[in-house]
Structure formats: C-alpha cells, structure tokens
Input
Amino acid sequence: MNIEDLQTFVAVADAGGVSPAARRLGVSKSIVSRRLMRLEAELEVQLLARNTRGASLTEAGVTFRDHAARACAEIDSAREAILPDGDLRGRMRIAAPLSFGSTHLAPVFAELARRHPQLQVHVSYGDGIVDIVAKGFDCAVRVGSLADSNLIARRIAPLGGNYVASPEYIRQHGNPETPEELLTHQVLMQGTEAWPLFDGTKVIHVHPQGRFKADNGVALTVAALAGLGIAALPDFLITEHLASGALVPVLRNYSFPDGGIYVVRPPGQHPARKVRVLTELLIEYFG
Output
C-alpha cells in the first residue's frame, strides 16, 4: 500500500475535498484523484462520497481514516528518526497575522529557513482568521484571544493591550470611565465585535459603535492617532505612542482581556516535526 495514497486520503478527509487537499499537499487535483482511486481499488471499498460541494467520508472511510492517520504518523516518525539531527525537508505553509507577523514574526520565519536550507518556507500574511485545514496550512501563528475550535493550540507567550485614544479626541469628546459611557463615543473596530471589559474577575461585554472600521491593527492605530476615536489595540502597536504621549489610556479602571501568541495546528495525535521546530524557535524568540 502506497504511503502517499494514505497521506492523500487523510488530507482529503480532513480538508473536506479534493481541491483543498491538493493545496495542502502541493500537488494537482488530478494527482489527488488518481491516488484516491488507486487506494479504493486496492482496498476494494469506497472511502469517499464525492459531490459538487466536496467529498464526505463513507462509513468505511470513517473507520479507515483513523487507522490511515496513525499509519502516516508512524511513517513520519520513522523518517524523522533517521534524518540527521535538526534536518528538515519538504514544504511548510504557515498562516500569520499581517500587523504582528510582518514586523515580529518575519525574522523568526527567516531564521527557520536559514537553519534548515532544505526546507521550503511559505508564509501567508493576513489579519483574517484562515481555515488552516481547508486551505492546507501546516500551522498558523495567531495573536490575541483564541476562539473555540477543534484546532490544537500551543501558547508561546503572553500578549497584552490597552484601550487608547489621542489627547485631541479626549479634549473634544471627554474620557469615558465606564462601559456605559463608552457607548456614547466613536469606537474604532474591526467589525461588529463586542468588547470585553474586565472589572476584576467580572467581565462586561459592550457593543460599541463607530464610523471607522478596518481589518488591520496598523490601520486602526493610525486612525486612533488621527483622533477618530477609541481603539482596543495590542501593546506591540501602541507602546511607543503611549510613551510619546501621542496616545493615552482610557477606561483605566477596566483591564484588557488576556491575550497571547499561539501556534495552532490541525487536529491530530502527533504534530509534524517542522511544526514542533517552529514552535521551539518561537519560544526561543518570545518565551
């Protein structure tokens, strides 16, 4: 039984279709389809029910998927065991946040590639939440608070933040001191998200309003500096502006939600060695 056929089946099962699995594996859809057909022919059973929306596991496929995943993990472990210490090969696809990634993570990814000259490192930057399973990423680095998901997460380091505005905005509109007062102010947001304000152990969720929205933290920082409203921003974007007085804290009696830097990966019993190596390198830089 061909190990590539098994790996391809597991990728299709986890990604939910041939196209996302092909992206994840870095091969064409025709190759993925050919491997699946070969595996099903060898087993003499249908593993996937294909339709216009993708592919779903048959009853036999559900049973076989876990066995195939364990077999692939064992083969990967065996390959890693015979490689020279520290040697990584193949391709690694990483999703990273744009604002934090291009300034703080880019040196880490460059160092990963420098240390492992046979490893292809492909990084995609964006502040939106990417479905790393469907898009075929080996892992993602995320900052802030993690939403509930079936992904496996490893916390690298804490990451704080603050509610801020420019002195000019405060002069014109006042300094809100309670969550209720915040509702009368212009707030700079990424969308329609609720803001959690922590009063000791008690959390208060408010739904502020504002006319300026952006899906990027740097853009929200620029808007706050321009006096357009109050923003909730991570420390790495505002520390120098707080030090210079260009931005000032608001809602001082309420704390910012605890955040962090995380590596998240698709569900599975054993993380790939390249993900473990990246995680260790991030801890070396930030931990």
